Amino acid sequence: MPWLRANCLVILGIWGLVGCGGDTPKVETGGLGEAVARKIEPLRRFECEGDKEQMVDSNGDGYANVRHVYDDNVEKCTELDVNMDGRIDMARLFDKGKLAKEQHDFDFDGRLDEQSYFENGKLARKELDTDFDGRIDTWVFCDGPYVGRLERDRHHRGQVDTWEGYEFGMLKLVRYDDNNDGAVERWEKYKEGRLIETDFDTNFDGKVDNTRSEGVDGPVFAKDAVSCDGSPLPERPAPPPPAAAPGDSSAAALRGGADSSAPALRGGADAGAPAADAGAEPTAPTPTDTTGGVPQPGLSNAEKPPVTSTVTTPAPATSGATSIETKSSEALPAPAAGSSKTPATGTKAAKKPAGATP
Predict the structure, then answer these.
(1) Residue 120: its pLDDT value, please?
(2) How much is the pLDDT for 98?
(3) Residue 308: pLDDT above 70?
(4) How far is CA 297 from the centre of its chain?
(5) Of 135, 115, 122, whose CA–CA distance to 38 is shortest?
(6) Cβ neighbourhood burial of 197 (10 Å; 0-12, 13-18, 19+)
(7) How many CB atoms sit inside 10 A of residue 54's CB?
(8) What one-character-per-residue DSSP string does 7-62 give?
(9) Are 67 and 356 a contacting pair, CB within 8 Å?
(10) How far apart, in whole angstroms, are the C-alpha atoms of residue 358 and residue 43?
């Protein structure tokens, strides 16, 4: 409905004004980290109480839908009813006036779906309930603007059994605990989102005893880098060109080496080269010539080895990565009939909205 969309935009504008950056307690971020079998935790609302509160009626219907709470005139927390149904859908907690934690009920069912932690004003970690059972089952750790790593209870058995590592937002390594014993038994390695190798510990002694290589035929799981906060990502650094391996055949040829794969440089017959025309007139060798800047004494033009340089750039992956989507405020439901709301009473009110803590 247009009026609901307009009201939500007004509230989100007010919401944005109260957010600010700063020093907050250190939270775990980025890196591959250890494969720790983290236990599943309940997702609970944090308390929002202080010595003073301010109620805001953002849509002018006579009921408050934003509540600011202060301690000694410093904002402690803020609660917001986005869809005007009398229940809190978003909340922010501040530490010494600086944003520290945020909680969301994206589907407006009265239960939290996600909470986020901030460090120096930037999103550092997100915790999600992906199966809507009221418990955290997925942890996302940021590495700057990128997803750095992700931990989840893939089988919903009460503890983390999958650890995903990223580099510049691209999937690099996934570790699996397939038998739920808290230890890793399978490792998947990725390059530019493509699975290239899988290692196995088949006897559960903590060591790799079997490897399966996928090479260029491995499936592609991630086409693009993944943003941690949903913002546009900077351009990723280009991968360095492959270094020449020791004993490269073309290098050996230029130095006059006896590499079997290089053309013969001392008048020998190259088995892979086409036979010379029997009736062709021989060409007198020049005293000194160069090919690719390397002296080639006593070689005719016909005997000079070709010098080529080719750099192959990996083709971009084609399949998309699985991502977590949240509901937009543009699809908000209409206010619930008969819901209990707190009347707006100016800038100060002693009562908090009904249903503030479902």
Answers:
(1) 82
(2) 87
(3) no
(4) 56
(5) 135
(6) middle
(7) 16
(8) HHHHHHHHHHHH-----------SS------PBPEE--PPP---SEEEEE-SSSSS
(9) yes
(10) 13
Residue 33 backbone dihedrals phi, psi, to 5 degrees:
70, 175
Rounded CA-CA distance 269/260 in Å is 11
Contact 111, 15 (CB under 8 A): no
Q: Please tell me the distance from the alpha carbon of residue 23 to that of residue 10, in angstroms, as a whole number.
A: 28
pLDDT in tens, 45-71: 999 999 999 999 988 888 999 999 999
Render pLDDT for 251-293 as a digit per residue (tens, 0 to 9). 444 344 444 444 433 444 444 444 444 444 545 444 444 444 4
What string of DSSP letters covers 96-153? TTEEEEEEE-TT-SSS--EEEEEETTEEEEEEE-SSSSSEE-EEEEEETTEEEEEEE-
Judge contact between 214 and 198, C-beta under 8 A. yes
pLDDT at position 244 is 66
Parallel, antiparallel, or unpaired for β 342-343 and 52-56? unpaired
Alpha carbon of 274 to those of 75, 228, 263, 269: distances in Å?
84, 58, 11, 10
Q: Cα separation of 285 and 297, whole Å? A: 9
Handedness of CA 161, 25, 124, 132 (dihedral sign): positive
State which H helix or E strand residue 195 sits in.
strand 194-200
In angstroms, what CA-CA distances link 72 with 50, 91, 268, 309, 346?
9, 20, 92, 70, 20
Q: What are phi and psi of 29, to 5 degrees?
A: -140, 160
Burial class for 132, CB neighbours closer than 10 Å (0-12, 13-18, 19+):
exposed
User: What type of residue sits at position 288?
Assistant: T
Token digits of residue 251: 């290098």
Map out the domains of the chain with their CATH numbers: 2-232+316-323 (3.90.930.1)
Gap between the Cα atoms of 166 and 172, Å rounded: 5
Which residue bears the tokens 């301690």? 71
| DSSP bridge partners of 77 | 69, 93
Q: Would you give the DSSP letter of residue 156?
A: -
CA distances from residue 236 to 142, 167, 174, 197, 312 in whole angstroms, order as listed? 16, 10, 21, 23, 18
